[in-house]
Specification:
The protein contains 25 helices and no strands. With 444 residues, it is mainly α.
Length: 444
């Protein structure tokens, strides 16, 4: 869509967030765009509910299961179920949902193994959710060759490319996505790339377009929460709170909206309120990001500490859950959420953090992974190697206060004069960083 390039002044590309099961924003599917079960006499309303099964809610998954029971011979019903299972896996951290999604895709391909675009894009979504980004890229490329004028393949491809660190390829995929389907999903991806390339004002324009074009409450909530994050990253706490509250109006209990409100409370020095909000959130949605923010909220009140023996006590119940997640990640050898590595680096064993992020680096080369690996190396005392990754994290020009803080701390530990400048820039970008994130006293 050329209008977006004119409006925001240039390059657009893909979103890539870092939840443990890769929350990448709203799906490209739209009510009425997915093919309903063939020969079933399905109403337009039923088709809309069927296509919306990727929303990630329990009701969406239940709806998709009902459709497969009613029409077991329709491959589209099984691909919709797979999407719903993937979204529920992201929301609940239940990896068993991904296995269920894989089985649903097998059923769909068994029914139609020759021209099953929905199953191919579903395989790409599944690969990306498992952090198998090279495979996600392969499925994305296959889907775009199958149907060059359909959007879902470009979304899969863009999400994989951003995680593999190929930002030009991601940009090309999202531009094509925008040209074909200028929806909330496309604008959200565009906004993320604009932000990561140092253009927050243009990112805000793209996210507002995502809000305006949202077809579902979930899409609206996601875009509003992202606008809140964007405002937060620039230190605009009041504006961030407005967007987080709008996200909660669109979808009561929206986890990223709730996390934002808790973050705002911590920034304003309302520690008890922040911990209460985080406690309710993490009981329902134990994402490493939310758990780590809860631990840091406790730390800001003077309850933080280092060492694995103190995780449960000083990190509260959230610290105990994070410690358990770290142990599980080490044992299973699967995807690693960078927030787990940040937790291990600051509150547990930095060598474990290094091991985890080296493993993830084999699968993903995004700036987020580079930053987390650099910080883990710094915490383990390997600052020369850490600096190389901190510089890789800075290569897109993202005005990210935490990235800037990490780089400054590493440079200061190496006795480099630019370290003080980067630490000062981090504080200027977000003055509330020390209250709400893992920004410990710089060593050395």
């Amino acid at each position: 869509m050329k209008a977006l390039i004119t409006a925001v002044g240039g390059a657009v590309a893909v979103a890539g967030c870092v939840a443990g099961l890769l929350y990448l924003g709203p799906d490209t599917a739209r009510p009425g765009t997915a093919a309903p079960p063939t020969g079933a006499g399905v109403s337009a309303g039923e088709a809309g509910a069927f296509a919306a099964a990727g929303s990630g809610s329990a009701s969406a998954a239940d709806t998709a299961r009902v459709r497969t029971r009613a029409y077991p011979g329709d491959p589209a019903a099984w691909t919709a179920l797979a999407r719903a299972e993937i979204e529920q896996a992201r929301a609940t951290l239940d990896a068993g949902r991904l296995d269920a999604a894989e089985e649903a895709l097998r059923r769909s391909l068994a029914l139609d193994g020759t021209d099953n675009y929905g199953a191919v894009t579903g395989q790409g979504l599944l690969a990306n959710a498992r952090h198998e980004f090279a495979r996600g890229r392969q499925y994305g490329l296959r889907a775009t060759r199958m149907a060059p004028d359909r959007p879902d393949g470009y979304a899969v491809l863009a999400d994989a490319e951003i995680q593999l660190g190929d930002y030009p390829a991601a940009r090309a995929a999202v531009q094509r996505l925008l040209d074909i389907a200028p929806t909330a999903a496309a604008y959200s991806r565009a906004a993320y790339d604009l932000e990561t390339h140092g253009r927050p004002e243009d990112a805000a324009i793209a996210l507002q377009r995502a809000v305006d074009s949202a077809a579902t409450p979930a899409e609206r909530a996601f875009a509003e929460a992202r606008l809140g994050d964007l405002a937060w990253s620039g230190g605009a706490v009041d504006r961030a709170e407005q967007h987080y509250r709008r996200a909660l109006v669109a979808v009561p209990g929206h986890p990223y909206g709730q996390a934002g409100i808790a973050r705002v409370a911590a920034a304003r020095g309302h520690g008890d309120r922040a911990r209460e909000l985080y406690g309710r959130l993490t009981e329902r949605t134990p994402l490493p990001q939310f758990l780590l923010e809860a631990v840091e909220a406790r730390g800001a009140a003077g309850a933080s500490g280092r060492g694995s023996e103190e995780n449960g006590k000083n990190g509260g119940s959230e610290g105990a859950v994070l410690a358990a997640q770290v142990r599980l990640a080490r044992a299973e050898g699967g995807p690693v959420d960078p927030y787990l590595a940040l937790y291990a680096a600051d509150h547990g064993d930095p060598e474990v953090a290094v091991d985890l992020m080296r493993r993830e680096w084999k699968q993903a080369r995004s700036v987020i992974v580079a930053d987390a690996l650099g910080w883990a190396l710094h915490s383990a005392g390997r600052d020369t190697e850490a600096l190389a990754y901190a510089r890789r994290a800075a290569r897109t020009g993202w005005q990210n206060a935490l990235f800037r803080y990490h780089r400054g701390a590493i440079e200061q530990a190496l006795g480099m004069p630019e370290g003080a400048r980067h630490l000062r820039e981090a504080a200027e970008l977000n003055p509330h960083l020390a209250r709400t994130s893992h920004a410990p006293t710089v060593r050395g």
